[in-house]
Amino acid sequence: MHHGVGRRRGTGGARRAARALIMTGAAAAATVAGLLGGPAIAATAQATKAANAPVASTPPMGYNTWYQYHGGNESVVLAQARALVSTGLATAGYEFVNLDDGWLAATRTASGALTWNPRLYPHGLPWLAGQLHAMGLKFGIYAAIGNQT
Q1: What number is the average pLDDT over the span 18-26?
Q2: How many CB atoms lie under 10 A from the CB of residue 132?
C-alpha cells in the first residue's frame, strides 16, 4: 500500500489525543475568559495602560541624610533642602529629601508608635515636612524592622 509507506504505526491516536487536549485547554481558557470577562478585561486594560505609560525622564533624585551625615538633624536637613532649591538642583529634578537612619527616638510612644528623636528634630517631623513642602520638595522617611536602626 502506497499511502502507508513512511507512516509509523500507533501515532495517529497520540496525535488525536494531543489535539483533543489542546482543544480542551482552549475551550477551558475561553470559558474562564467568558466568566471573568469584566474583571479580566479591566485588568488587561490597566496593564496595557501601565505598559504604555511614559517613562520618567530621570530617576527619583534628591538628598538622603545617610550619605554625608549618617543620620543628620533638623538644621542639617533644612540647610541641605535650601541648598537644593538655591542651587537650582530642585528645578533640575532633585526634589526628594529623605531621612535615613537616625531620626527615630530610642523608644516608642506609650501607644507603641514610632516617633522622632526630639533632640535631633525639636520641632517634629510634621513641622519639618511642612517646611520642605513649602520649598516645593517632597519628604520621605526610612525605617527598618528592629529597634536599633
Answers
A1: 42
A2: 21
d(CA 79, CA 28): 63
Collapsing DSSP states into helix, strand and coil, what is residue 95? strand
Residue indicated by cell numbers 525622564: 57
66, 119 Cβ separation under 8 angstroms: no
Digit-coded pLDDT (tens) for 61-71: 999 998 888 88
- Strands of 4-125 (E only): list them: 61-64, 94-99
> If DSSP codes are grouped into helix, strand and coil, which group holds residue 82?
helix
* Sign, Cα dihedral of 72, 75, 79, 82: positive
DSSP 141: E
Sequence spans of domains, the chain: 2-52, 61-141
pTM above 0.90, yes or no: no
